[in-house]
Amino acid sequence: MAPELPDLYEETLFCDMSPTQAEVYEKEKNLIRNRLLDTSAQIAPGQFSIIALQGLTRLRILANHPAMLDPGYEGDSGKFEQICMNFETLRAEGHKVLIFSSFVKHLRILANFFDDQNWQYSWLTGSMTPAQRDAEITRFNNDSNINCFFISLKAGGTGLNLTAADYVFIIDPWWNPASETQALSRAHRIGQDKKVFVYRFITSNSIEDKIRKLQVEKSNLASTFITTGNPLSALSLDEIMASLG
Description:
- The chain is of the alpha/beta class.
- The chain has two domains: 8-13 and 77-203, Rossmann fold, CATH 3.40.50; 18-73 and 206-243, no CATH class.
- Helices cover 49% and strands 13% of the residues.
- The chain contains ten helices and six strands.
- The longest helix has 21 residues, at 19-39.
- The protein is globular.
- It comes from bioreactor metagenome.
């Protein structure tokens, strides 16, 4: 009989954009909305959903941190501040945290800040060799000075045993909840002897917030994403435009 796993607690943390970030986001949102309105009657629905997904992906990035699109951006990010604040508290208490993102650039922005603070971390992305990957896993599991493991969702969604961690941050949730379940299972698995806490960071009043609500209303979004790579193909024009707010 398989041993019983410790309790798993999941919470969504809503983050307000900083004023500078919100200004950049709103400007881009208006440009995308106008572009979609101009092209909606001129192209086939399938092509429209592809163009819309490109636009919404840009908004998703801005909702996380505008520096991911504009390296010259010198403003701040509400989500960035909340991630760092939560991590600093957990680090001071001796916890180990897995930080998952769909964007390596997002992880790099956080890692640069960690470097400035002299906070040690492990790092795993798809560009690493199996030997490098194994070395980072060993460091994280065995070194008490390393409290964070930055992991790209595609590279680290499966096959990792990271039960040294008792907190999981999913910092840019999106269309496919199954990938998030795989991520949190890196810590919440056989061999774990601690309660595991999962935080999903969502930027309030952004495309992330809208997509979460759509996922509740339309259960087929995730399956459409898996089969086509574009969940917007399951939405009407009005629903796509409504997601822009």
